[in-house]
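#struct-help
A.M.: can someone run this one for me? Single chain, 144 residues.
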Amino acid sequence: METNPQNIRLAVPFFMVADMEASLRFYRDGLGFKLTNEWTPRGKIEWCWLQRDAVSIMLQEPRNRNADQLAPPGGGVTISYQCADALGLYHEFKEKGLSISEPFVGNGMWVVGLKDPDGYRLEFESLTDVLEETKYSEWKKDEN
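D.P.: on it. Structure tokens below:
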């Protein structure tokens, strides 16, 4: 399966943060980034997209403070590639035998996640109108 060479369009650093308000003060108020998208499921920002000029960054405060979600300082980095068709890449990567997580919908996007050999998390994402937190297998089952 060959992909369109224009499929992957943008890589966005995605940082897990211990204190969203402190991080917003630093990136927005200190560095001049503008808040362009936010997720507030319980009345406060838990995820956001910030942008300054052509540069973007995502921040997320984890719901649970377990070791998998909050790494030591400098850890917890995810590179998120914004794509035209993340599910197409899922099938491509799977065909190549890569160890890959089941896609799911998060923040209005299909999220296809995997780790590189050093443990860095990579996510390939594309916009969708599928219900939030839907797993790919559930969606495929409902589609048939």
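A.M.: thanks! The chain has a mean pLDDT of 88.
D.P.: also worth noting: The radius of gyration is 16 Å.
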